[in-house]
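Incident log, support desk, overnight shift.

02:14 A customer reports that sequence design results differ from what the structure should imply. Their input is reproduced verbatim below. On-call engineer (initials T.W.) acknowledged and began investigating.
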């Protein structure tokens, strides 16, 4: 059940509605937007309680309307929030009219590499710096990231360029540490259904990007996002990064149909990662254009000064000149679909 309060509802009125929900066996989850205040009633009380509480809530002066959401992902659902959500990442908007581009190296290798890349992608028009300090790798012998040192390098690049930082968090125990250095927490594909991690990210208020699991359905992805919102963190975006199929010519199959599917089901923004999604540098620019054309709110692009020397995923990473070309080529496509870059 979703309770939408009238514009300007006071803290006392919010608490009155919340207490009414508690009295009937619900746990209230309050989200304050720029204009609206929404309270999600979490729980499974008896049918009689449901029938009793709705009219009582509707009778309260502060309540605009009461909605019953049929989807299992209630807070994520567009039923509960018809308008598109726009996240504010240190002044960078994600989900609005402007396309948000996040770019940087797959792995933080050293200070010079990150600083060079950060300055270059910023000059080309990227708004958020990406970089992996902790790296989940398929092989235990591959580079696993610099950890805390990597986070400190990213923070230094943020200070030098003014760009917010997105980096991956892998375990619940690392959430607090990564929040100290990052502006967006990336939850990788292999952790999409790590429910302990999702709950911990839900307890913080740092924005989160939830990548789709390698073999996950869209409904499973939506339910995973619900864990974060149910914990109280409404600053969530999706990221389509390719799924595992029978096709061997690409690393994964980039499912761009997920973009309109998510847009229909949810109010949360969706980003596309064509680097991971294809695993091929020669496809990144084409798939980036297609992603913007089909409605993606942004892109996550791997960029390195020398991809051939990258310690991870060099085969799918653009160099600085290629990224600059991409940003130039995206502008008319964004304009064609009523967006800007």
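02:41 Re-run completed on a clean worker. Output:
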């Amino acid at each position: 059940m979703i309770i939408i309060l009238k514009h300007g509802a006071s803290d006392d009125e919010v608490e009155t509605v919340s207490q009414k929900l508690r009295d009937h066996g619900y746990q209230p989850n309050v989200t304050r937007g720029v204009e609206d205040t929404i309270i999600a009633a979490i729980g499974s009380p008896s049918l009689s309680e449901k029938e009793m509480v709705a009219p009582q809530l509707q009778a309260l002066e502060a309540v605009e309307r009461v909605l019953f959401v049929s989807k299992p992902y209630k807070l994520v659902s567009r039923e509960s929030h018809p308008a598109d959500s726009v996240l504010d990442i240190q002044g960078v908007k994600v989900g609005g009219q402007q396309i948000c581009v996040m770019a940087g190296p797959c792995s933080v290798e050293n200070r010079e590499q990150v600083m060079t890349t950060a300055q270059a992608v910023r000059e080309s028009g990227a708004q958020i710096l990406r970089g992996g300090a902790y790296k989940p790798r398929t092989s235990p012998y591959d580079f696993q990231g610099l950890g805390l040192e990597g986070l400190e390098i990213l923070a230094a690049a943020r200070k030098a360029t003014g760009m917010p930082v997105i980096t991956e968090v892998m375990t619940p125990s690392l959430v607090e540490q990564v929040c100290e250095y990052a502006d967006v927490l990336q939850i990788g594909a292999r952790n999409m259904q790590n429910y302990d991690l999702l709950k911990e990210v839900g307890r913080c208020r740092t924005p989160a990007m939830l990548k789709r699991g390698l073999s996950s359905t869209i409904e499973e992805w939506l339910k995973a996002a619900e864990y974060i919102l149910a914990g109280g963190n409404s600053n969530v975006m999706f990221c389509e990064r390719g799924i595992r199929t029978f096709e061997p010519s690409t690393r994964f199959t980039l499912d761009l149909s997920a973009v309109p599917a998510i847009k229909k089901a949810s109010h949360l923004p969706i980003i596309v990662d064509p680097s991971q999604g294809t695993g091929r540098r020669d496809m990144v620019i084409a798939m980036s254009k297609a992603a913007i054309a089909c409605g993606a709110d942004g892109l996550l692009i791997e960029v390195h000064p020398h991809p051939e020397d990258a310690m991870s995923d060099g085969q799918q990473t653009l160099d600085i000149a290629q990224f600059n070309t991409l940003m130039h080529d995206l502008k008319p496509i964004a304009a064609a679909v009523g967006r800007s870059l």
